[in-house]
Each structure stands twice: as structure tokens, then as C-alpha cells.
Amino acid sequence: MTDNVAGRPGNGGETHQEASGDDVRLTTQQGVVVGDDQNTLRAGERGPALLEDFHFREKIFHFDHERIPERVVHARGFGVHGYFENYDSLSDLTRADPFQEAGRRTEAFVRFSTVAGNKGSFDLARDVRGFAVKLYTREGNWDLVGNNIPVFFIQDPIKFPDMVHAAKQEPDRGFPQAQTAHDNFWDFVSLTPESTHMLLWIMSDRAIPRSFRFMEGFGVHTFRLVNAEGRSTFVKFHWKPKQGLQSVVWNEALKINGADPDFHRRDLWDAIQSGDYPEWELGMQLFDDDFADRFAFDILDPTKIIPEEEVPVRPVGKLVLNRVVDNFFAETEQVAFCTQNIVPGIDFTNDPLLQGRNFSYLDTQLKRLGSPNFTHLPVNAPKCPFATFQQDGHMAMVNPKGRVNYEPNSWPDDIKGPREDPERGFTTYPETISGPERRLRAESFADHYSQARQFFVSQTSIEQQHIVDAFVFELSKCDRVEIRARVVGALRNVHEDLATAVADGLGLAELPEPARCAREPITDLPPSPALSIVRNGPDSVAGRKIGVLVTDGVDAKAFAEVRDAVQAEQAILEVVAPKVGGVTTDDGGRIEADQKIDGGPSVLYDAVVILATDAGAAELATLPPARDFVSDAYAHGKFIAHRNAGSLFAAAGLTGELDAGVMDLAAGASVADFLGRCREVRYWARFES
Ligand code: HDE
């Protein structure tokens, strides 16, 4: 099969005539072979174009309509295929198909995304990441449309448009792009106390993950599991990366966005293409009405978590992502997640946000995909048998034959069509509901600060400092001083240390009064170690990227030792050199470079090695990107191993005694020690000095 030919088969293209081999001819959409694709039809050599040029008109017409509306939120995303594998039967808890037996595999499509930026924005925005999973179960599609942060900004869906308007670019000027560091966002959230818990999360390093592979996912809302007897158990869903948690630091994020705006999608693509399939464990926090009644907060409130220390996360299976898409548009862009897509054995709760989402997602797909038949697209269609009496509409591709398109009907069995099945069909959990129709917020949703404080005290001191720095950075971008003060007033209800540090960082003349609380915060919730990234880091360097900067004359043996050790740890090695053609080694061999130094800054790597000669280091010292390579790696707390890089270090401003995170291989440090230390991700002590 030849690539790049019209009518090539693939996702959604199966109806086309297959063309292959040398016989492939460029055709119009009507199948007419094109004679000339280089010139439009003209009257005379230099004359006007002719309207009868159907090939030109068809080509431009189709091009003009290539774009569909981008998602209003989560526009920038990256989708991949994989599967979910169940560990043990959970049939006592749920009749949902993926959980019925040990080892059962269910095909999955996962789309990761940022929220605020437009489709062409950069990957390392400070933002929530979408973690949307479509499971093609044998009893229908189940979409678990989650985020990498377990809480949300608002409690009522009616505030969603306001929240999103405030977060995205300001309407008069159309900027800033993909960032909340502007007046409108902070104005809105400072007037919306329920956002405070979420603010702590997005100002933490959770909002700048190192990669999709190293972040958690959360279903956010409380859902129900329902077993075959109709018994319901409350559940919160978690995705735990087997690779461990890891984030970048803010200054690194800013530079990565310039060096590689596609950093996250490239990382996932490269990992899968190299056979290093990322995995997450699906975990469930299971609880009943008794727990719900005695828990300090409302289990329906999406601005609250249930600490793992209070209800443990039970691992029930693993998600493996092992296949990139064939076509970005057909799959990643056209995939339509809907929170309403659940299967027998799973059910909603009355979390108000979830209820609102159940309306919004279906509605948005009609706008984006233009037809109620978006379910006919291969990425959206169930992989189990399906049969409805729904028909027609734009682009209908599943068109049943025969005369019968309604039920009940009295036609014979072979043509009468499908029937409902009260036994196997979806049955809603019969929760008893009563109460007057009113627009109100439950009193049990009134605490806005206690868990924000719990999050803050659960962080290491370095992570707390990063939260302070992020608040200061974002609020420094607000022009209106009273907005900055209002946020600090809210933070005083979270933690005095946080509020005073932010006020100090902003240079506020005086500490504002604490914001009025609808309910007095609880100040003694125990810290939850599960909330810290640093405490839940990786236990190996597998899947991490080591950048090795080399110069001409490099010691071939020393390079081979580093390369072999990195490979043995299942980490990735990328060679950076002054020229992309590579370098000559001391024994006359060649090392190919992956990056020229200008395009391979150290922010793209988890740790760096510099293997130079004295002359090579002196040459690097004259190159600004090489000096940045070293000074950034140092400033970002990275482990650095080197040989003969002294003059480069000096040129980069690193003089005197360097700390234990910098290891001199020529002076006896070993590559094994270096890689061993890299498991700690960063040399954290450097941030404390
Ligand atoms: Fe979404 N959200 N959302 N959201 N959301 C969309 O659906 C919406 C919320 C999330 O990769 C939209 O297809 C409302 C929470 C993800 O395609 C839209 C409310 C959580 C994705 C929409 C929320 C999410 C979306 C835009 C408040 C975490 C990307 C395009 C009531 C649990 C899915 C689209 C993908 C996308 C509405 C709140 C996660 C407009 C009204 C809470 C991961 O329908």
C-alpha cells in the first residue's frame, strides 16, 4: 500500500476503493484521474482562471473546510490507543463488563489535553491536564472523562461558562494565550471562594507535569458501582502512573515552551514508538452511605477529595498505552467523549457538576462534529454489536436495510429489528429523590478552605515554595492591585505562612483582612503524603531522558560507558553536540548527534552529562547555548556528570566548590552513582541552599 494517495484506506477511509502499487493515480473525489495537479485551467498562457476547472474548485473547496470547531476547552490534546486489563473479578461490586474476570482486556482510547489554550498553544502551560479515557467495553462505550487534578474550580455547572471565559484569553485583546496569569481569571476566582482548593493545586507543580506519562488521573466526581443484585457502592476513580510522579520547575516550563512547544506529545509519541509503553493502575476508593454520612465534607462536592489515607485506593487493573494514532484528525480531533457514556454496572451520582456535564458533552459534539452521526466515526463507534432505530441525518454511514424502522412492530422475527432487554439492559440505580425545586447551594458545600490548607501542609517545603512562587508570578501579571489583595485575603483562610509569603513576594503594602468565610475552616486535618509529587516520585530512571553533551576528541570509552549504563537502566540517551553532524572521538570514531546545541537545551532532559576535552570545553564556553545548557541544568536542580568541563562551568558562572549534585567522572565519580542519584529526579538540596 502506498502512503499519501487519495482514497488510501485507514480509519474512516474503508469505503474508498483501494489503490495500490505503481498503478496509483491521483483522482478527484469522484474518482476521475487528474491529468495536471500543478496548474489551474487558464484562458491563454497569462490569462484568467476558468470556473469550469472542477478539479481546482473541488480541491480548494475541500481545503477551505478542513477545520472543524476546536473544543471550547481542552482544545490542545493528544490521543493514543491502548487497553485496560483487569486484575480480579469485581462482580461483587459491579456488573460492569471490564471488571468481570481476571485478565479481561478492554480496548481503550485516551486523550490527554491542556484546558485553557487554543489548539496551537504550547504543551507546558501552567494548566490542568485532561485525562479522558474511552473504554470500548463489550456492553457499550464507557467514557471516564477526568483530569490530572482531583478537584474542580466550581460546584455548580451554571458557573462553567463564566469560569472558562475568565480563564481563557481576554475578549477585547485575544490574549494572553494558554495562561491564567491575567486579571480576568484572578478577578473571577478571588470572587469565587469555592475555587480556593483548586487554586492550590494549579499553583502547585501538578499543573506543570514533566510528561503525560508521569502524572495521575482522577475521575473527580463520586460515581456508583452497581452489582447484578442492584447493590450500589460509591467510588472515586484514580489513575496512578507506574512510572511515578514527576513535574518540571516553572523556569524550566517557560524555556521548554520555547525549545519544544510539543514537548508532551512528542514524549508520549516517542515512548510508544520505542516500545516503552506507559502504564497506569486504575484505583478505586470504595465507600458506602455510612462513610458518606460521617465524612467531614459532602461526597457530592467536586471541590473536595477523600484523602487516600482515609479511604485507601484499591488497585483493580492496569491501563497500557501501546499504539499511536494513524491519523491525528480522524482520531484525536474527532474523538467525542461524553460523560453520559456509561455502561451497566456504573452509574452517576447527584454531583451537580457531573449532572451539568452530562448535558454539555453531547451538545458540544453536535457543534464540533456537525452531525448526530458522530457515533459512526470509527474512533467513537462501539466495538460491541449495536442496533438502534435512529436514522438519517448528516453523513449517515450506518444505514440499516429493510422496511422496519420503529418499534413496537408486528413484522416477522427476521426483519422486525432490535428489542429492549430488561435483564441485560442499562437500569438506573433507583435512588429516592425528594425536595422542593429551588436554586440553592447545599449547606454541606459551604467549606471552601479546609482542604486547601490540608493540601498545602501535605507538601514538602520545596513544593510549598513553588506554590508561593506561582501565586506571586501569576498575581504579578494582574494589573489591578485590589485583585492581588483579594487573593491574599482568601489565602489567609488557608495558611498564614502562605498568605504572608505571597504578600511579601508581591510587595503588598499591608496584609489584607482575611476573606469572609461561609463556614469556619477546619485547621487540624492531618497531612496527606499522597498529595505530594516529590514524595511519590519514581523509583528508577527508566523512561527518563539523559542529555549527553559531547565535543570533538571525546573519550570513546567514557561515552560508551555512559551510553551502556543509560540503556541498561532503560532510560533514553540523546547526544547533543556543537554541530548536528556529530563529533570525532579520541580513537578516530564518530558519534552522531541527535541535537545541535542550539536545539538541545538542557531543559529537554531529566539529567545531563558533559563529556568534553579541555579544548572542547573551551570552545563550548564561547557558545551561549552551551553556557545556558550548564547554568540551566544547575538552576533547575538537575544532576550533572562531567569530564573536563571546568572551563565551561566557569563561563556559565559555576565557580568554586560545586554541590554533590555535580559529579566529576574524571575525578573518580562513577556513572552508576550518577544514575543512582538521578532516581531522586532532582538534587533537591540545591533549592534549599
Ligand atoms: Fe469538561 N468539557 N466540562 N470537565 N472536559 C469538555 O467537551 C464541561 C469538567 C474534561 O479530550 C467539552 O468535547 C462542563 C470537569 C476533559 O475530548 C465541554 C463542565 C472535568 C475534556 C465540557 C466541565 C472535565 C473536557 C469541550 C462543568 C474533570 C476533554 C469539548 C459542569 C473531571 C475531552 C468537549 C477530550 C471537555 C464541558 C467540567 C474534564 C464543553 C459544562 C470537572 C478531560 O463539553
Automatic annotation (TrEMBL):
The entry lists its GO molecular-function terms as: catalase activity; heme binding; metal ion binding
Binding sites annotated in the UniProt record for heme: 71, 111, 160, 357, 361, 368
User: Pfam families in the record, alphabetically?
Assistant: Catalase, Catalase-rel, Catalase_C
Q: Print the keywords alphabetically.
A: Heme, Hydrogen peroxide, Iron, Metal-binding, Oxidoreductase, Peroxidase
The record's catalysed reaction(s) read: 2 H2O2 = O2 + 2 H2O
Annotated Catalase core domain residues:
27-415
For this entry, list what GO says about its biological process: hydrogen peroxide catabolic process; response to oxidative stress
- Where in this protein does the record put region Disordered? 1-25
Q: Which EC numbers characterise this protein's activity in its record?
A: 1.11.1.6
Coiled-coil region list? none
Feature: compositional bias, Basic and acidic residues: 15-25
Q: Which domain of life is it from?
A: Bacteria
Active site located where? Answer: 74, 147
Name a GO CC annotation attached to this entry.
Answer: cytosol
| Matching InterPro entries | Catalase, Catalase_AS, Catalase_clade2, Catalase_clade2_helical, Catalase_core, Catalase_haem_BS, Catalase_immune_responsive, Catalase_large_C
Asked whether the keyword Lyase is assigned, the reply is no
Asked if Cytoplasm is a keyword of the record, the answer is no
Q: Which cofactor does it need?
A: heme
Q: What does this protein do?
A: Decomposes hydrogen peroxide into water and oxygen; serves to protect cells from the toxic effects of hydrogen peroxide.
- Family stated for the protein in its record: Belongs to the catalase family. HPII subfamily.
Record-given protein name = Catalase
Gene name linked to the record: katE
